[in-house]
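Exercise 7. Given the encoded structure of a 148-residue chain, write a plausible sequence.
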């Protein structure tokens, strides 16, 4: 259900609204083109982020040490980011009632490098492992056997 509000007439000091200045403006709904469920409850997300940072665990994707002191951006590929084990963009496949629930589930979060998380994209760990194995098989198939 959409909510509306009336903008008051700034020239009317009695508090009424004149016909020329009467306007209604829609309040943007939560879900939309630019909606990010990870930021729906920033406080909870920040608590989860701080908790993962305090644990100081290695990257859950590659197992390497994370540079927790660096800012999380593309200029620092080994910096810390929060990764979702089960992608938030595919929340319906994994039985969550909403994308927000998937993004806020502590059991769905893990620490990762910025670059590893970007490479993983919206895949699960199993899908990522199959992709890596496929790449390794292609690489090994053209290598000489060593009898040269």
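Solution.
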């Amino acid at each position: 259900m959409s909510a509306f509000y009336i903008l008051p007439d700034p020239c009317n000091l009695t508090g009424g609204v004149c016909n020329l200045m009467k306007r209604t403006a829609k309040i943007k709904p939560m879900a939309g083109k630019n909606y990010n469920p990870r930021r729906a409850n920033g406080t909870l997300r920040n608590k989860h982020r701080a908790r993962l940072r305090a644990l100081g665990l290695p990257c859950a994707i590659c197992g390497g040490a994370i540079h927790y002191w660096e800012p999380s951006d593309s200029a620092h590929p080994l910096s810390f980011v929060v990764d979702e084990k089960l992608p938030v963009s595919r929340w319906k496949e994994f039985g969550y009632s909403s994308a927000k629930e998937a993004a806020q589930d502590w059991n769905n979060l893990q620490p990762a490098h910025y670059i590893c998380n970007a490479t993983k994209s919206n895949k699960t760990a199993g899908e990522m492992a199959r992709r890596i194995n496929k790449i390794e098989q292609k690489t090994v198939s053209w290598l000489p056997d060593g009898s040269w």
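Remark. The first helix runs from residue 42 to 55. Students should compare their own answers with the one above.
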